[in-house]
Design goal:
Two copies of one chain form a homodimer. Helix content of chain A is 43%, strand content 14%. The first copy, chain A, is of the alpha/beta class and 332 residues long. Chain A folds into two domains: 140 residues, 3-Layer(aba) Sandwich (Isopropylmalate Dehydrogenase); 157 residues, Isopropylmalate Dehydrogenase (3-Layer(aba) Sandwich). In chain A, helix 1 links the parallel strand 1 and strand 2. Chain A is globular and about 55 Å long. In chain A, 55% of the residues are buried. At the A-B interface, helix 7 and helix 8 of A face helix 7 and helix 8 of B.
Chain lengths: 332, 332
């Protein structure tokens, strides 16, 4: 059973509900029942929403009756195995961190997005949850991303890059330069600093960055792919010989559009938490929501949480000053 | 006369020299004469280079005989009107800041790149010169970018956006949230926070950000455009009907590739300095270098420096604590 938050999506609660229902996965929909087509036996009426205008952590604490918090609590209390939302990513992260908790030894959970780079999907993290990051966070993001691609997507020795403004190890803001040094000295398959263009090169499995840069880069990639695609289609219609060419190519272009669509990969996943938490794209279609629900179910079936935790532990990538082993008993 | 630094370009000094010579603009080429085809009457032999591995400010001070510093000094001493380099942007900025100086009242010069968004070119700044920025810098970048597009590119009331991880005014790291407040209260045609995808929407004339995010975003846009273009070409060749379509569309695709190429706009321009300084793309072809040289000449012809300075002053966007009016006499 997947707990599906129907509030906060660009296309409304009815689209989210339709996506959940067409996923083929059992869902409980938390949202405004009045906006969701009957039958309502899979709906928990929860009209209260958390929006992009709210300060995430405060809103999550102040509105226990919101659809997002109710859906998260369904996971916490064992009534559901994972939570999916197309609402504000910050609020989802805050709710999951508050109610599901982060894994022991993880500094900050990260929002990761699997980018549909044709041929070699690439995981980008953080994609918007942690705007300001310390060196420690970046290093841990690298381990969490690598483990995720290895455990859930079956990639052997994932190639990990650190996003910066140049390939040279000394390029970047101080925390990036420091993270580069630490990752280069560690056991990951670390290729070093990478640039914005490398995200879509198909030569990387994981790209690590802070949530501000990651969000900008993710949307720049999506926006550019869309822009170029629409220019190609316009060019295809603009003159008789090109129009014929465009007609003949239209199926190919449709495939490409599908391959590059976020709807295709189901959105983002929060790494470093004790419960499976999936952020569907805010503008997801019903198909995008269905894929997000299926991604959540796959993570449950693949025991992603346990495998990620085990692999982080095995890699020695957990925070070293754990309360259990620290005499001072300080936590972070 | 344009001073052209031939060192540091990905395609070598001969390509830079060829570009300068085909620009139709009088140039003096500063670089390794042994690598540049004769005749050498337009060459000043200057084999010493500053590379991406050097710390920019230190290298510029330590190597007065480098081609870059010699080219910059030619402008300072009135033997040339502008400097163009395809070498490391940081070194160019450091050399120009040291020898040409920034405009009075400008906190930090910015590297700006005119992105070839079809239909509506968009100026992105900072594209890599200032990795860490204060609120004041971002605000000034917005004014400098707006003035540049108005004065040199003839755009009336340029639409200015502030790059962030969401459109809402409260989204972003603290300096972005503060800059949004200040710009919204000012006289610019400020559209508010914009996301990575908006850079290529054709709905903005200026996008303001820090140099780290700007560099990542710029390269993400370029890399994605290239990736999608190459997929379309591959798709066009992959099956007989599509191949026919692709053949018929090939001229259109070639046009598109040309439109989206950085070679087409000649690279970046440094704003906020007292001399015209153009950064050609590191991987520029001879054509790209030629366009960079022509861009520099146009900025000279259009009196960009004087008009930018005047417009900044008129907009009240200069630093307020000028030595001339401050009793304490502190500068910055």
């Amino acid at each position: 059973m997947i707990a599906l938050d129907a509030n906060g999506a660009d296309n409304g609660a009815a689209t989210v509900a339709a996506g959940g229902r067409e996923s083929g996965v059992p869902v409980t929909i938390f949202g405004p029942q009045a906006e969701i087509p009957a039958p309502h036996d899979d709906v928990v009426d929860a009209p209260v929403a958390i929006t992009n205008d709210d300060e995430p952590a405060r809103a999550v604490r102040a509105r226990p009756d919101s659809s997002l918090v109710q859906a998260t609590k369904a996971v916490k209390e064992g009534r559901a195995q994972a939570v999916v939302s197309a609402g504000p990513t910050g609020a989802l992260m805050a709710s999951a961190t508050l109610h599901l908790k982060r894994m022991k030894g993880v500094h900050r959970p990260a929002a990761a997005v699997l980018l549909p780079v044709p041929g070699s999907p690439t995981l980008l993290l953080d994609s918007g949850a942690n705007l300001d990051v310390r060196t420690d966070y970046l290093v841990q993001f690298a381990y969490m991303g690598s483990v995720f691609m290895e455990a859930v997507h079956g990639v052997a020795r994932p190639r990990v890059g650190l996003l910066s403004n140049g390939h040279e190890p000394k390029k970047g803001v101080p925390q990036v330069v420091e993270a580069n040094e630490r990752l280069a000295a560690g056991p990951l398959n670390f290729v070093g600093n990478v640039e914005g263009g490398d995200i879509v090169s198909g030569e990387l499995d994981v790209v690590v960055t802070d949530g501000f840069t990651g969000n900008v880069a993710l949307k720049a990639v999506e926006g550019t792919a869309k822009m170029v695609g629409s220019i190609v289609r316009r060019a295809a219609r603009s003159s008789p010989p090109a129009a014929l060419g465009g007609l003949l190519m239209s199926r190919k272009l449709g495939q490409l559009r599908h391959e590059l669509s976020q709807d295709n990969v189901g959105g983002g996943i929060m790494l470093g938490l004790r419960g499976v938490t999936v952020a569907a794209h805010g503008s997801a279609s019903a198909t995008g929501i269905a894929n997000a629900v299926r991604l959540a179910q796959r993570a449950v079936d693949e025991r992603m949480i346990e495998r990620t935790e085990a692999a982080l532990r095995d890699a020695g990538a957990l925070r070293t000053s754990e309360p259990a082993i620290s005499l001072a008993g300080t936590d972070d």
